[in-house]
Design brief:
It is a single chain. By secondary structure, the chain is mainly α. It is 81% helix and 0% strand.
């Protein structure tokens, strides 16, 4: 029975992606426009904001310089998908159990402070200070969730890592390049999908499309968030941006799922954790928005 369901799922996925490929071929101009936008964003913003943090995360694990506090704090700074690589590296090196890696993944895969303050704050909310507030709320939500699941988080390093610092650095840079290429590929693909949505779903209200983009791909959603901002109060819109930033978008989820599946880890704790943190971020920001910003 399970095998039959699995075959049907694979068949559905095959025809789905085959249809997408045909659509990309027929509508080549739309596809190219989305790809150009995605590549431009990756080169100008995404890679500079993610690559250094990815290298640092991998270096910390490979060198054996890690603890529960260190993992959580590194995750808050380095963000997604660096946190996923860090958790899987810890699991593979025997520094933590399978359950610990799965639950830590939700905590350590947020958005980097550079991205939140410089992109969410400046480009979306038109205020770097609001970007700082968004980052603090999302970080607090992650820490709060870490306390909720802390009984399932056990990190023990009872042996020194025999790899040299120089070897660890070289491997971290190499792995970081691979991780950033994967991240950029997902981002460009979702830029193309969003370009098709903009082209063929013009009959949908613009604010509805904005909401869909934020759910699917945070970057595109932020770039096209103006229609949603126009129909919501500043307080609700700000709270939604905090929630979506904590949730991170399906694009990030797919990347993290790929990293976890290659290490034999479950994706469910990550998805559950991100939903919980998004809810916490929305509530906290909605409560304190009036106090902070009057």
């Amino acid at each position: 029975m399970e095998k039959s369901i699995h075959i049907r799922k694979n068949t559905f996925a095959f025809y789905l992606f085959l249809s997408i490929s045909v659509l990309f071929t027929v509508c080549r101009e739309v596809c190219m426009a989305g790809a150009v936008k995605g590549l431009s964003f990756c080169i100008a913003t995404l890679i500079p904001a993610v690559f250094p943090f990815t290298v640092v995360c991998k270096l910390l694990v490979k060198a054996g310089v890690i603890s529960r506090f260190g993992v959580i704090s590194s995750g808050l700074v380095c963000g997604a998908p660096s946190g996923a690589y860090m958790c899987t590296e810890m699991y593979k090196n025997g520094y933590c159990t399978k359950h610990t890696a799965e639950h830590l993944c939700a905590v350590t895969n947020g958005m980097t402070p550079t991205f939140v303050i410089g992109f969410v704050g400046v480009c979306c909310l038109n205020d770097a200070q609001k970007g700082v507030f968004v980052y603090l709320i999302c970080s607090f939500s992650s820490i709060l969730y870490a306390f909720v699941v802390k009984k399932r988080i056990r990190i023990t390093i009872d042996r020194a890592n025999d790899i040299s610092v120089f070897s660890a650095f070289t491997e971290s840079v190499t792995d970081g390049i691979s991780a950033v290429i994967s991240l950029s590929g997902f981002t460009v693909f979702f830029f193309v999908i969003c370009e098709f949505l903009n082209t063929f779903f013009v009959f949908l209200p613009s604010h509805t499309l904005s909401f869909i983009f934020l759910f699917c791909e945070l970057i595109t959603g932020i770039l096209q968030s103006a229609p949603l901002c126009a129909v919501l109060s500043e307080r609700v819109f700000f709270s939604l941006m905090c929630a979506f930033t904590s949730f991170s978008g399906i694009c990030i989820h797919l990347q993290v799922r790929g990293v976890l599946s290659r290490a034999g880890l479950s994706f469910r704790p990550f998805f559950t954790g991100k939903c919980v943190m998004a809810f916490i971020s929305f509530i906290i920001s909605f409560i304190f928005y009036g106090i902070i910003f009057g």
